[in-house]
């Protein structure tokens, strides 16, 4: 782990400890313990639908003829493994994408699996950007007027920037001429060509992929209601979705922080306080969601580790430039990563 990554993790841990010191730890733990074992099991199980929506979004990133041969359960497995690696490693949400194709076995060609990951990642990012942007435009301003003045303008600017960034990525894939900065990655050109072909031949499937991922982000609003229900905190439907929109905004800005260490708790504390709830409620909520995320990420990372132990390829090795190092050196080793 690099020095910068260690510093980020240290800052995240310090943030959590500072929040616990600022708020009464016994009070925070009391609200967390209200959830109970059955509530925690319900929250963990509730996430299955979110993983299914994301897997359906990935399925739509395949051409129709290739999608028929890929079972939905394998796509869910691949999503879990990739999300686990992304969550538990300081990869900036990139390394997890490299392990997804190997989780599908021989259900489709390597080219189809690799290009589907790129298309799905682009669709997921656009789905998140649309969820944030439309939410800020219609929910926050129209219903709650939570953000005012410069805060509102800054939030809208971030949402619009995310949308424009995804649009630029989509243009790079779709345009005939290879951008100069991309030309040196010769092995990516074949993937870009396949992705460009997909976008032109299957625009409806790409739109469906974006909508499935967008629905997955929206599912988080229902999870907010569920967690608050078990915490015995009264939160309205519109407020819950507004909180989820702002949470996604924080996640998008702080995507480089591994395991959302500190950003989850600090973000939820600020959001709940902004809506008039005690900061301790937001901190307890953040800890509960962090526990849920860590549980599913650990399960996904275990699937990835088992896939590697079985000797199956878990990487997009064909996408790397010719002079790059071998991919197994780039991907985390399950044993050492868990120890770290």
Short descriptors:
340 residues, mainly alpha, 16 helices, 76% helix, globular, disordered C terminus
How would you describe the overall organization of this protein?
The protein is mostly helical and about 350 residues long. It has one domain (about 5-340). About 75% of the residues lie in helices and about 0% in strands. Helix 13 packs antiparallel against helix 14 (about 280-310). The longest helix is centred in the middle third of the chain and has 35 residues, at about 110-145. It is globular and about 55 Å long. The termini are close together. About 40% of the residues are buried. The model is unreliable at about 315-330 and about 335-340 (pLDDT under 50).
Quick gist of this model?
The termini are close together. Helix content is 76%, strand content 0%.
Classify the helix fraction into a percent range: over 70%
**Distance between termini?**
8 Å
* Number of E-type strands: 0
Average pLDDT score: 80
Determine Rg (CA atoms, Å).
Answer: 20 Å
Shape: globular
- Uncertain parts: 317-331, 336-340
- Total domain count: 1
Number of helices: 16
Beta-strand content? under 5%
Q: SSE string, helix = H, strand = E?
A: HHHHHHHHHHHHHHHH
Secondary structure category: mainly alpha
Task: Compile the SSE list and pairings.
Elements: H1 3-22, H2 25-33, H3 36-59, H4 64-67, H5 72-88, H6 95-99, H7 110-144, H8 149-174, H9 180-183, H10 186-201, H11 203-231, H12 237-253, H13 263-274, H14 279-309, H15 327-330, H16 334-339
Helix pairs in contact: 2-14, 3-5, 3-7, 3-11, 5-14, 7-8, 7-10, 7-11, 7-12, 11-12, 12-13, 13-14
